[in-house]
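Handout, page 2. Input:
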Amino acid sequence: MPDIKSMTLKELEQYMEEIGEKKFRAKQLYEWMHKKLARNFDDMHNLPKSLKQKIQSGVGMLSVKEVQRYTSKIDGTAKFLFELYDGSIIETVLMRYKHGNSVCISSQAGCRMGCRFCASTIGGLTRSLEPSEMLDQIYHIQYATRERVSNVVVMGTGEPFDNFDHLLRFLELLTNEQGLNISQRNVTVSTCGIVPKIYELAEKKLQITLAISLHSPNDKMRRELMPIANKYSIREIMDACDAYIAATNRRITFEYSLVKGVNDQPEHAKMLIHLLKGKLCHVNLIPVNPIDEREYEQSTKQSVYEFQHLLEKNHIRVTVRREMGRDINAACGQLRKRYVENREE
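Output:
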């Protein structure tokens, strides 16, 4: 059954014509789903009952169901566990900043990329999310909290470029002025480095921020941390990033998780400097979140400071990610994994 919440306005207009309805009904329906954030057809008060019945007999409207919510006592960060129509579990994080609310969404239930420091990959991939399921994480949070979401990060469970077509549809719907109308410049999409999709995204000339999960300054170390490095070298990723910058004139963010004694030493910083010097980029240093199934430890504050200082000294823009929601296990995959394990016991 087609998913109506994943349809563009043009597709909705075509659908209305196919079922013998007036074209203007498509805009009403679109606004109910994407601007007024109606949770079901019954909430759409100005649509005739006969139309609702006709729609429900031909299409579905996928929504997420909140099963748990945790709120940090430290900084107000909230983590939501959502259940999908098939019982799959995903997680979404609401981060409150002075400049506005940011939501980090999942693009897949599970992940098959196998990055060694990430709990999301434990258990592999269940399935990719529909565009509406990606959207509804944001819609549910905005509806439930009555707080405007101004920034969206596609950096939760899953590899967005492993769900590329649905990602593009999600971005189109999210930034449409008939919906939430979130600016493309307020959207960040993270990838572990699937090179062909970086080129493909560059061709779209979107104004989103592309974030590359780099985490290592050389291929040998990267292969130990990230299995995707066995397929695409850092050189190939850098060439794709150059093409992306040339096409969009957008600065790329390089995510670099600092692991104690593994990739956080001055020599690693110098290699990273050699790799990135002169590029239109920004480095986001992330002291890694320890997880039970992995042996990695978080870098010391001194190591993080020295690494940051070396990059700044060489004119590379860098920030250290502010740790949020530590008391609620807000790192990717931790709560989802625990919830699924408890449910299966």
